[in-house]
């Protein structure tokens, strides 16, 4: 299933290929995700295409600096970014997709990141 999405002002626009719904999504409670309300759909780099807006993206790093939090410098919306948990994928914000997609939402305990990532790698959690 191919679907488009982007930031609020339209500067950043992308398309992604998603599996058949319900699409796995992670609801993370870490310091930045709970503030921004980001709902993670993990999309392999090859299944994501940035159609426009590369020049509008600016980035923010904190903590280990492994994740690159990208957001639109015009409207401030974070439609996708490079997560620390999945270095070969983008994390796309389900709330920034142009159409609603049925999701299978699982909690990701990003407040205790190492423990949560361990569970993810052990296959105890989807995504
Ligand atoms: Zn924007």
Descriptive overview:
The chain is mainly beta and 127 residues long. The protein has a single domain, classed as Metal Binding Protein, Guanine Nucleotide Exchange Factor, Chain A (Beta Complex). It is 10% helix and 38% strand. The protein contains 2 helices and 10 strands. The strands form 3 sheets. It has a 5-stranded mixed beta sheet, with no helix packed on it. It has a 3-stranded antiparallel beta sheet with strand order 1-2-5, with no helix packed on it. It binds zinc ion. The site of zinc ion has 9 residues, from loops.
Task: List the secondary-structure elements in sequence, H or E.
Answer: EEEHEEEEEEEH
> Looking at the chains present, what oligomeric state does this protein adopt?
single chain
The domain tally reads 1
Number of helices: 2
How far apart the termini lie comes to: 17 Å
β content, as a range? 35-45%
The stretches of 5 or more residues where confidence is low (pLDDT under 50) are none
Radius of gyration: 14 Å
Strand order of the largest sheet: 8-9-4-3-10
Number of strands: 10
- SSE class: mainly beta
Short structural description:
The chain has two helices and ten strands.
Short key terms for the protein model shown above:
127 residues, Metal Binding Protein, Guanine Nucleotide Exchange Factor, Chain A, binds zinc ion, five-stranded mixed β-sheet, mainly beta, 2 helices, 10% helix, 38% strand, single chain, globular
Topology, element by element:
Blueprint: E1 2-6, E2 13-17, E3 23-28, H1 33-36, E4 39-44, E5 48-52, E6 57-60, E7 69-72, E8 80-81, E9 89-93, E10 103-108, H2 113-121
Parallel strand pairs: 3-10
Antiparallel strand pairs: 1-2, 2-5, 3-4, 4-9, 6-7, 8-9
The structure holds zinc ion (ZN).
